[in-house]
């Protein structure tokens, strides 16, 4: 019984993280400047990724006999969830990629925390580990695009000088 309670809390947290990630990237898509339009495909891919991961987590809950409403409401959200929400909803001036990297880092903290939780079924732990690796890959893409963006800015500054 205790293991099921732990599993439900972990699933709730991760489902909430992915819901917030989806909302965050949708918000950022609407705020992209003309110079950031190259990020549309990347952000849309991350939205799709979170939708698929969230559905996979909901499917696991269904296999355990849990109603979807039990996994999308309530739950104890840790500090990392608060950071994801704050990063994506912030109106502070910042490059979109900076917000994305901060949000992805917070999501990775959440995955690391859930992955280390005692009492999770090994099959669920494997799925969480795989999803964590996918989020790491997403963060690497953000880092790559950030480096490209930085190179473009340097070229523009050199051209002006």
Question: Secondary structure elements and their pairing?
Answer:
Elements: H1 2-31, H2 40-63, H3 68-72, H4 79-89, H5 96-115, H6 122-160
Helix pairs in contact: 1-2, 1-4, 1-5, 2-6, 4-5, 5-6
InterPro entries: Ferritin-like (IPR012347)
Organism: Parapedobacter koreensis
Protein name: DUF2383 domain-containing protein
Explain how this protein is built.
By secondary structure, this protein is mostly helical. It has a single domain (2-160), classed as Ferritin, core subunit, four-helix bundle (Ferritin, Up-down Bundle), CATH 1.20.1260.10. The chain has six helices and no strands. It has helices at residues 2-31, 40-63, 68-72, 79-89, 96-115, 122-160. The chain is elongated. The model has no long low-confidence stretch (mean pLDDT 81).
């Amino acid at each position: 019984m205790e293991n099921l309670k732990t599993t439900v809390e972990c699933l709730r947290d991760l489902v909430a993280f992915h819901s917030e990630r989806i909302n965050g990237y949708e918000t950022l898509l609407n705020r992209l400047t003309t110079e950031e339009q190259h990020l549309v495909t990347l952000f849309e891919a991350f939205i799709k990724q979170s939708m698929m991961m969230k559905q996979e987590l909901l499917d696991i809950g269904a296999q355990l006999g849990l109603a979807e409403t039990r996994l999308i409401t309530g739950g104890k959200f840790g500090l990392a969830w608060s950071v994801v929400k704050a990063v994506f909803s912030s109106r502070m001036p910042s490059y979109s990629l900076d917000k994305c990297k901060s949000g992805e880092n917070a999501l990775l903290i959440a995955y690391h925390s859930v992955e280390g939780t005692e009492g999770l079924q090994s099959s669920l732990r494997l799925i969480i580990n795989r999803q964590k690796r996918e989020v790491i890959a997403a963060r690497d893409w953000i880092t790559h695009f950030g480096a490209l963006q930085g190179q473009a800015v340097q070229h523009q500054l050199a051209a002006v000088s």
